[in-house]
Design goal:
Layout lengths: L2 H26 L38 H13 L14 E2 L5 E2 L30 E3 L2 E3 L2 E4 L2 E5 L16 E6 L7 E5 L5 E6 L2
Antiparallel strand pairs: 1-2, 3-7, 4-5, 5-6, 6-9, 7-8, 8-9
């Protein structure tokens, strides 16, 4: 076989392989053309976004209800609440790229976040906001840790962190302006957040 014949066979093989690869990529993209990351519209939450600041303090409640009635209303509202403000968003408290903290609007008197002894284990001193991204190192909702700091998710928020990866997810801590003794742990991967108590 001549050199030119071998070269032509080699070119055909390479062209065939490239065609198969392109076909597979097309099929994996669901028949759609793959978009360059810069051409895709940005996700509105998660996916590497870190809020520049925590939530703003909630406006004071206009009307005080009797404590038992208020607790009953809060319980009913929270269990029937849907946080999906658009269909693609999670049904959990989350943060939009414009800095809006969806779901952080229950106000200072939310009994679910009342602690008899706020900051009983001291204050978290590892740093807040986008300049302080931590990697979860283990645990679960009732006790997790990173960089020698330990936290616990508020029991009422357990369902909102069911998809967190407890030994890998990037977490940013923010101060909670409404609930004494609580911080907010924002998951950079999912774009969701939960109320957390520092436990040492």
């Amino acid at each position: 076989m001549s050199k030119s014949m071998r070269f032509q066979i080699l070119l055909l093989s390479v062209a065939y392989a490239a065609g198969l690869g392109a076909g597979q990529a097309f099929a994996q993209a669901g028949g759609r053309e793959a978009q360059h990351p810069a051409q895709r519209p940005p996700e509105q939450h998660g996916g590497g976004f870190i809020p520049p600041h925590g939530p703003r303090q909630s406006a004071p409640a206009r009307e005080e209800h009797a404590p038992a009635r208020q607790a009953q209303q809060e319980h009913h509202q929270e269990h029937n609440r849907d946080f999906r403000d658009v269909p693609e968003h999670p049904n959990a408290p989350h943060v939009h790229r414009d800095g809006e903290w969806v779901g952080h609007d229950s106000g200072r008197n939310d009994r679910r976040f009342h602690l008899d002894h706020p900051w009983a284990h001291g204050h978290f001193s590892g740093g807040f906001g986008p300049g302080h991204v931590f990697r979860l190192e283990g645990g679960g909702p009732s006790r997790f840790w990173f960089s020698g700091f330990y936290f616990s998710i508020a029991p009422v928020d357990f369902a909102y962190c069911a998809d967190w990866i407890w030994n890998a997810d990037p977490i940013v801590i923010y101060e909670d302006p409404d609930h004494d003794g609580w911080y907010l742990a924002y998951n950079e991967r999912t774009g969701t957040y939960c109320h957390v108590e520092y436990i040492g």
